[in-house]
Amino acid sequence: MDDVIKKIGNYKLINEQIRQAVIAGRKVLDQYTRKMDTETLILYAAAVLDPRVKTEFLKAHLQEGAEAVISNL
After folding, report:
1. What is the Cα–Cα distance from 53 to 2, expressed in whole angstroms?
2. Per-domain residue ranges for the chain?
3. What is the chain's pLDDT, residue by residue, as a tens digit (73 residues)?
4. 32-39 long-range contacts, Cβ below 8 Å, gap at least 24?
5. In sequence order, what DSSP letters do the residues of 29-46 get, joined into one string?
6. What is the pTM of this model?
7. Which residues does 44 contact at the CB level (< 8 Å), separation at least 6?
8. CB 60 within 8 A of CB 32
9. Contacts 24+ apart (CB under 8 A), 32-41
């Protein structure tokens, strides 16, 4: 998504309406991620239990705080 928003690489010539839609979608995704950070560890536990996701999801979204959350699971 970042490449689309910043018009990098293959997305250099992307239509502005599509870019704006991606920006709006990113805002919604960030809102849900913040809710996961503040409301409950249950969503994180479900993500970790999913064999397709494991801890990579947590590391990608929490960055420096990921290890603390993973150790609490």
Report:
1. 20
2. 1-39, 40-73
3. 888 889 888 889 999 999 999 999 999 988 887 776 666 677 777 777 876 677 777 777 777 777 887 777 6
4. 33/61, 36/61, 37/62, 37/65
5. HHHHHHHHHHH-SHHHHH
6. 0.50
7. 36, 58, 69, 73
8. no
9. 33/61, 36/61, 37/62, 37/65, 41/69, 41/72, 41/73
Q: Which residue do the tokens 């809102």 mark?
A: 31
**Cβ contacts of 34 within 8 Å, gap of 6 or more:** none
Q: How far apart are CA 62 and CA 73, in angstroms?
A: 14
Summarize pLDDT for 5-19 with one digit per residue, the tens. 898 888 899 999 999
